[in-house]
Amino acid sequence: MSTNSFAATMKTDVCLTFDVEFTIGGAFSDPANKQPVSERSVFCDVDGESQGLGFILNTLSKHKLTATFFVEALNFHYFGDSPMSDIAKTILAAGHDVQLHLHPCWRHFRMEDWQTQLSSIPPNDSMAERSTEDIREIIQEGMQAFARWGIAKPIAIRTGGLQVDKTVYHVMQELGVPLASNIGVAISPPINSELHFSSGRHSIAGVLEMPVLSYCDLSFRQKKHLKSLTITGSSWSETRHLLNNAVRKNISPVVILSHPSEFVKHRDVQYTQLAPNRLNQSRFKTLCLFLEKNQQHFNVLTFTKGHSCWQAQQEEQALLSVTTGMTIRRMLENKFNDTF
Ligand SMILES: [Zn+2]
């Protein structure tokens, strides 16, 4: 059997991943008038119907698909345990995977006088460029929150804003967290260029990293412009093209990034005026239908399921790309959706 025909018989794993997080809601820039926003920014109710998390869970259930939800834990510093703990339990009860997401900016609220400290100690939301001790303390805080919430110890972490460096992986390894999805080279390229992975699986300090898929959407001579695969950023024709090419090039898994808030339009940072984002909802429904109907090529799985089969790193390093025509059509589609 030739390599190509073997590759054609392999299924491509697809991980639908959602970062579930509360929002600072402008409180750092205008602490006198703005407060962080909790459930409203995750459920995104419009006329009593959840157009955010509820929409995602309903759509996944309709197509019998499971997803990984990276649940942000450090917001307990402001909100206490209950709002996010309840959300994590809702996700688990629906049969999905809950893993750990960390936005260290929430630790700013450890200070009682956090408003007056904003100018002297600006909140730092990055997990990169911190000391080993600092990273250990942050990850342990997240793991302890999961333990208090009665949720299994995470086997995977996604750092906030996909900001990461090598030290994070060393600490993850030390703390017994075997999987990561911390990289999205088009969103936040790591300072260390050795970590510029666009797809596949990569062993970093003993941790297996599955980056959010990044692809080339425009190129000029040697210069390539990259984009990471999200529901809100990429059109359905781009996503379908990338999935089909991942099968052809034996790239696995394809990690797609989304957030509950991508499925609504919000006019203000406090999430008080919401409307369904019909374009993004339609993209996600079409993707789920496609994955359900094409199970001969795609295996949709969670990080927990993947843990048992993703033992080795994948050598394949091909950078996927879309055509310039697709990029231009998507730019127009997104612009039109933002305007109306
Ligand atoms: Zn996040």
Task: Describe the fold and architecture.
The protein has one domain: Glycoside hydrolase/deacetylase (TIM Barrel, Alpha-Beta Barrel), CATH 3.20.20.370. It is built from twelve helices and 15 strands. The protein has helices at residues 3-9, 40-43, 53-62, 76-79, 82-93, 114-117, 132-148, 166-174, 236-248, 278-293, 303-309, 324-339, and strands at residues 12-20, 45-46, 49-50, 68-72, 97-102, 156-159, 179-180, 202-204, 207-209, 214-220, 223-228, 254-258, 264-266, 274-276, 298-300. Strands 1, 4, 5, 6, 7, 8, 9, 12 and 15 form a nine-stranded mixed β-sheet that branches. Strands 2-3 form a two-stranded antiparallel ribbon. Strands 10-11 form a two-stranded antiparallel ribbon. Helix 3 (53-62) runs parallel beside helix 10 and helix 7 (132-148) packs across helix 8 (166-174). The termini are far apart. Mean pLDDT is 93; it is low at 1-8. Zinc ion binds at residues 19, 21, 101, 103, 160.
